[in-house]
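Researcher: Next sequence.
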Amino acid sequence: MRGSLTAPLASRAGQAVRRAVESYPEVLNVVVVVTGGLSHQIHVELAGFNNTDWDMEFLELLQHDPQALTRMTQADYVRLGGSESFEQIMWLAMRGAVEGPWHNVHQNYYLATTTAMTAVLYEVINPSDQDNSLIN
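Model: Next structure:
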């Protein structure tokens, strides 16, 4: 869609943030925070739709194969997670900002309303071994 934020563009925006931080002359400890719903649809006949299986797959891909998520179209996100789930690409901006392998330190997933939500804490694995990356 012309003029829309796409999954690849969101990832590249995060990578630009990472390059900006890495260009800083001093070593920084950086925390990257993202907000965006997981599966949900709050309009029309599918109002209240959630897809927990897709949410778990998304979080797994985000951790282990974020490039797979950048190859998905907006239609793919909507088909799997509902019309408002395209917010998930905001997570790709965060993933683009954090290079290298990471692990899931804590995850809390819940459906308190019509929007699937999660609080996840990721930590980069061995940041000192990441080609002198300045993002920890």
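Model: Helices lie at 7-22, 52-64, 66-70, 74-81, 89-97. Confidence is low (pLDDT under 50) at residues 132-136.
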